[in-house]
Amino acid sequence: MSGFCLSGNSCPAVKNILILDSEGKRVAVKYYSDEWPTNSAKLAFEKSLFGRTLKSNARTEAEITIFDSNIVIYKFVQDLHFFITGGDDENELLLATVLQGLFDAIALRLRNTIDKREALENLDVIFLCIDEVVDQGMILETDANAIAGKVAIQNMDASATLSEQTISQALASAREHLTKTLLK
Amino acid sequence: MAQPFLKKDDDHDDEADYSPFLGIEKGAVLQEARVFNDHQLDPRRCSQVITKLLYLLNQGETFTKVEATEVFFAVTKLFQSRDLGLRRMVYVIIKELSPSADEVIIVTSSLMKDMTSKTDMYRANAIRVLCRITDGTLLTQIERYLKQAIVDKNPVVASAALVSGIHLLQTNPEIVKRWSNEVQEAVQSRAALVQFHALALLHQIRQNDRLAVNKLVSSLTKGSVRSPLAQCLLIRYTSQVIRESASNTQTGDRPFYDFLEGCLRHKAEMVIFEAARAITELNGVTSRELTPAITVLQLFLSSTKPVLRFAAVRTLNKVAMTHPIAVINCNIDMESLISDQNRSIATLAITTLLKTGNESSVDRLMKQITTFMSDIADEFKIVVIEAIRSLCLKFPLKHRSLMNFLSNILREEGGFEYKKAIVDSIVILIRDIPEAKESGLLHLCEFIEDCEFTYLSTQILHFLGIEGPKTSDPSKYIRYIYNRVHLENATVRAGAVSTLAKFGAMVDSLKPRIFVLLRRCLFDTDDEVRDRATLYLNTLGTDGAVVETGEDVKEFLFGSLDIPLVNLERSLKNYEPSEESFDINSVPKEVKIQPLAEKKAPGKKPTGLGGPPPGPPSTIDAYEKLLLSIPEFANFGKLFKSSAPVELTEAETEYAVNVVKHIFDGHVVFQYNCTNTIPEQLLENVTVIVDASEAEEFAEVASKPLRSLPYDSPGQTFVAFEKPEGVPAVGKFSNMLRFIVKEVDPSTGEAEDDGVEDEYQLEELEVVAADYMLKVGVSNFRNAWESMGPDCERVDEYGLGPRENLAEAVNAVINLLGMQPCEGTEVVPSNSRSHTCLLSGVYIGNVKVLVRLQFGIDGPKDVAMKLAVRSEDEAVSDVIHEIVASG
Fold first, then answer.
1. ipTM of predicted complex
2. Which parts of the sequence belong to the Coatomer subunit gamma C-terminal domain (chain B) (predicted)?
């Protein structure tokens, strides 16, 4: 991972984005800062942060705390806990905007059923959303529709992909889609 | 995109814990990754495998070098597929694998093709990936495309290029700086995020050019910025400009203040807050300037969003430290936040109120806090306690109600840290506010009547022993103390006995009664308690009459022990019963840093309430003390200078060693600070063998080995050299660490009996001219220079050869001389072609030296320097020139 070089200047920077489940286990995490050099340091941070925020009610509005001299903003939905961390002199509202952008983009892509199972089944979508929100600590996009749009490549360029699909592939994906809707 | 990964789990609806990654294994996934090599690629399956790989990496799984390379090569095959979804995943996994330089070449051409593709998504992502993994050499090849991308009409592509530019600026500044025209154009973009990224990059390119930043800010503040994020950046840059220009304008009106104030009416909360915060942080902000900012923050206090309330209350909390009056208007809103669900907000509100509160509002505030204290966590309570403590010191007249509050919460339930914070606060109040002493001591007495923490009980007893006898009626404390002897565990009982003895020694009228009590303690079940009682009865005089206690007895009871307790403990353990009695003077006074294990050693009585533990010696005083305590070095005279530690090993080696050079008039002592980083080893008899063949004027006179060096507890060994008196001898020393290594059983921590002799090569160490120079500044260089007079002045000119820039040359000379730069002259403005630097110092033999350096750039890069030295001794002035001439 490349060095974290944004903190020295006045550019807003994100130190990490975490999505944990209701037991504090990782669903998807992304660190942009060298503050947590090893996996065990990261896990320790996640564990104590999860324990600290567990009891708060961050379901309707995002909540906030100072943790280890970092600002952490968090939001829970179903059995998923979303966190974003920034330096302690960061603009809190700016960080909140980033978290909200990510959250809404994921909601759009998962058609509003955000829970652990749906997230794991669509983990590629989650990874892509995180990838589109922050690039090595630098805020890339905060508008949920724009993020979701960038992740939904098939929709953006549907004609190109359809023509490349063989008939059997198209049939297979159609069949799968049908079984899925029937199972629900 | 939304298909499940494993079709076979059809019945997973019933399982609550269902995960598509259940039982996933690295080996199996790596096997699966072979599908990347198939001739007929199945994009969907490949995407799934990539997701699994990403999942593993995300869970903290690591790939070996071979595995990572294999996966990487397989992934590169996927560029053949033209499936967009798959390509997207390929980009992500390449970034995660962070391939090495020789691997990058494999994907370069594919990525460069994507960079020029017609599909926007390809272009944007290929740029991000390529810039992430590339090194400088490739950058020149793709520079043309990046410049185009910055002004691309698709905002996603432009942002990708700009953000990559921001990252690349750290590693390849000269290339990125060439893009400023394009970046400037992008600042005018209609797309919000492009504008934000362009502004960030443009500012970073120009941040060292004050004038350019000034121009940038003044053109943009006229109102062409649309994006809230960009506006936040602009506010930050504006306050930077204000900060730097504040000293120039004396007229009163602050430049750009109107812009900041205007931002308070922006529609985005993020911008409003950024502006309000910027205003509160202005240097020497006036209350007129502050008012509009405080007003918007006050509105935020009653927002429904916790983040907004938090941001506002945190900023106001900071303002309250410097401008408490300005925040008073918010007090009503602040008080309603005391019951906020979010405890971070509540605590910040309380501490702000405590800072802004005036004497009359203290009582009301305390009432409110009392109701609030019961339902917050201990860590927040501690913050509140600390705020109350400082409030009490601010309003000593209010000590009664504040002390009452503290004693009330002391009686309630709470953890150790919380109780300790309260006790510490009461102790501080007793010390600083004489009127609070008697009531405070009684509160403490009541507390120990029902205290579950042995540590706190003994600490309070100790404190009572010091303060109690000095009060008007010491006898009233005796009951509380003697109750401990009946009711508590042995440790507390022993503490109580000592405290009783102190009362007996200090208050002569109480002595007979104390004797009765102490005699009863002679029948205690615990050895320590009985021993202490016997000791005190004997030292205070056995007759129990009302007599004055002797000075030496008082000294024995209350005087501080000047021997480190660890050393005393070790000496006592080593003492074998014999005819000869134990001599306390034989205990070494050398400060040895306590190993962790020994800190927990039981039966050791802490020396003071909350007193700091003896830390490693860091200042010159500590060094001097340390060196004087070693008999071999005691006659070296006054320590002239101790250098900063110089590392002799690389980071993360088996043994970490650094050295501090101590310079005396006729001697040099090397202090090697050694740390053993191997838990399975114990080192004994550690010495450093120094070869001084390249330092002719030095002769080794003494060395002090380190007896044992356990794991992770630093120790020191010393080597001393004699050198000609007053001569700044220089030389090179090579070092070899020699020791006996013993295996340690990690489970028991016990070392084996036999050890093996071993050596460990350390890096070389140099004594340089700068070691003989003390950095001592002067407040007014010109005065000092004039008063020194030109008698011993020596002036000469030197050519320093080609240098990168002036700043580098200036730094090199400062480091060579080891002198203190004066009046900020060590800072060289960028792009300047000449510079004057003023230095001052004290040379060995206590000779004051002043140096004036004039630098100029001669020709393209050649730096020339004129060196003028004034000192109290012309020989020293010559020496300075010699140093520079030979450096």
1. 0.83
2. 770-884
Q: Residue B711, CB half-sphere, CA atoms under 13 Å: how many?
A: 14
Q: Is A117 inside any structural domain?
A: yes
The answer to whether position A44 is within a domain reads yes
Nearest CB neighbour to A97, from listed B58, B270, B344: B270
Evaluate whether residue A108 is within a structural domain: yes
Please indicate whether, in this complex, the C-beta atoms of B273 and A66 are within 8 angstroms of each other.
no
DSSP symbol at B530: H
Mean pLDDT calculated for residue range B789-811: 81
Which chain B residues have a beta carbon less than 8 Å from that of A124? 1, 47-48, 50-51, 54, 89
**In angstroms, rounded to a whole number, what is the distance separating the alpha carbons of residues B734 and B545?**
69
**If you average pLDDT over residues B10-26, what whole number do you get?**
66
| Residue of chain B whose Cα is closest to the Cα of A116 | B19
**Bridge partners of A65?**
A72
Give the pair of three-digit tokens for residue A94. Answer: 């700016």
Phi, psi (deg, nearest 5) at residue B158: -60, -45
Query: CB within 8 A of B2, min separation 6: which ones?
Result: A110, A121, A122, A125, A180
Asked if residue B112 lies in contact with residue B70, where contact means CB atoms within 8 angstroms, the answer is: no
User: What structural domains does chain B harbor?
Assistant: 209-284 (no CATH), 385-558 (1.25.10.10), 627-767 (2.60.40.1480), 772-886 (3.30.310.10)
Residue A170 within a domain: no
Residue-range definition of the domain harbouring residue A110: 14-155
For residue B84, give the nearest of A56, A66, A153 by CB distance. A153
How many structural domains is chain A composed of?
1
Asked whether B289 and B252 are in contact (CB, 8 A), the reply is no
- Cβ within 8 Å of residue B556, ≥6 positions away: B539
| Interface contact A79, partner B, CB < 8 A | no
Q: In the predicted model, what is the mean pLDDT of residues B161-165? A: 94
A80 three-state secondary structure: strand
Enter the tokens of residue B73.
Answer: 């090569």
Q: Does B84 touch chain A (CB under 8 A)?
A: yes
Gap between the Cα atoms of B110 and B114, Å rounded? 6
Q: Which residue on chain A is closest to B17 by alpha carbon?
A: A117
- Asked if B819 contacts B775 with a C-beta cutoff of 8 angstroms, the reply is yes
Residue B375 CB contacts under 8 Å (≥ 6 apart), including other chains: none
Q: Per mean pLDDT, which of A134-143, B408-417, B677-686, B794-803 is the most reliable?
A: A134-143
What's the pTM value of the predicted model, to 2 decimals?
0.60
Cβ-contact B209, B182 below 8 angstroms: no
What residue type is B676 in one-letter code?
Answer: N
Which pLDDT band holds residue A6 (cuts at 50, 70, 90)?
very low
**Does the CB of A175 have a partner CB in chain B at under 8 Å?**
no
B605/B65 Cα distance (integer angstroms)? 54
Contact A72, A60 (CB under 8 A): no
Q: Is 80 exceeded by the pLDDT of residue A177?
A: no
- Identity (one letter) of the amino acid at B416? F
Q: Which of B2, B229, B307 sits opposite A122 (nearest CB)?
A: B2
Percent of chain B with pLDDT over 70: 89
The pLDDT-based confidence of B190 (bands split at 50, 70, 90) is confident
Strand ranges (E), B346-499? none
User: What length is written for chain B?
Assistant: 887
Q: State the DSSP code for B601.
A: -
Q: Do A136 and B2 touch (CB under 8 A)?
A: no
Mutation site, A45, A48, A123, interface B, largest B CB count within 10 A:
A123
The residue assigned the tokens 């403990």 is: B569
CATH number of the domain bearing residue A120:
3.30.450.60
Most confident of B189-193, B198-202, B287-291, B587-591: B198-202
Q: Is the pLDDT of residue B476 over 50?
A: yes
Minimal CA–CA distance to A145: which of A135, A155, A136? Answer: A155
